Amino acid sequence: MSGVRPGPGKGAAGQKPLPPLKKYQKRRPAPGSEPPTPREGTGWAIVSYLIGGMVLYGGIGWLVGRWTNIPILFPIGLLLGIGLSLALIIYRFTRQL
Amino acid sequence: MSDAHLTTTAHLVTTASGCHFQSKPSCGFPAPGIEDFFFKPIFTIGSFEFTKPILIMLLSAAIVLLVFWLAFRKPKLVPRGVQNVGELGILAVRDQILRPQMGSKGDRYLPFLVTLFFFIWLMNLWELIPVAQFPATSKFAFPFGLTLVVWVTYLFIGMRHQGPLGYFKNMAVPAGAPWWILPLLAPIELLSNIIVRPFTLSIRLFANMLSGHLLLLVFSVASWYLFTATIGLLFAAVSFIVFLLVFVLEVLITLLQAFIFTTLTAFYIGDALEPAH
After folding, report:
1. A40 to chain B, minimum CA–CA distance in Å?
2. Could you say which of A41, A57, A81 has the minimum Cβ distance to residue B263?
3. What is the pLDDT of residues B118-142, one digit of tens each?
4. How many domains does chain B have?
5. What chain A residue is nearest to B265 in terms of C-alpha separation?
6. Which residue range is the domain that position B50 belongs to?
């Protein structure tokens, strides 16, 4: 299959229309239905995840850094926390949209 | 003067005593600060001090109670008078706050949200009313107390609807995440849902009202301080215009903060009602 799908009416006469691409069809909402809008609190929930990730892993990094005398562990922990909370936000919120 | 000391802050009393720009003997600009948020008690019972913010809170509660009692004392099918206002308020909360967050299955919690919204809004509104001129919510204890109520409510609802353990399990395990990353993500979820959420909820309301009150103070005090027969008059005029603009902004903020607090409460309760998606 070539990457380009002919639009409706563009295909040559008599040619069978291609079967719908299931992979993309699944995500598309049924015709006529509104796409689900994200709830208003979602934005604030995302902020609280970001704060949570930074506080938790930044805190762990800071503590371990103090304990082992390697101060660089604090920023590493912060970055790790941000990364993990971003992953969490993606898992939690992009799947439902 | 001694009467004024009872309810107003020390700083406002200094200002009212006639300290102006370039006055002799010269006095510096009495910059408003955090000390303006501490009041002399109106009266004390033992070690309990009854202060202006407490009075404002009690008045707000009484007004909310009175308005809704008057509105629905004898409800009629065709609403008239106060009942119109009451229904308008309740429907606004239901259609703008509750339904978008929870759908119609959350209608059970409408009374809680309506009370919360109007109580907070009124406590904020005192900031703009002459003589009172103080939002009770700019004292951290008030948003914190309200948040505590919300926190206990949504944790309780969650444990009742999903089971005490199931609730925390559903909270900690995000759907669709690979298993090996779960031990790293679950602590973030728990921390964010149980500690960061209530913390940010109260801080947001508190900080917004505190800064709003401080802004109004700075510009009104500056208008008064600069009000002299010198070039200061020009600056006083500018300061007063800014004061009016901030005032209009604060009218919006009082409503917006009450709205956000209630919306987030609805969101948290909605999350507790059904397993996270």
Report:
1. 7
2. A41
3. 999 999 999 999 888 899 999 999 9
4. 1
5. A41
6. 2-273
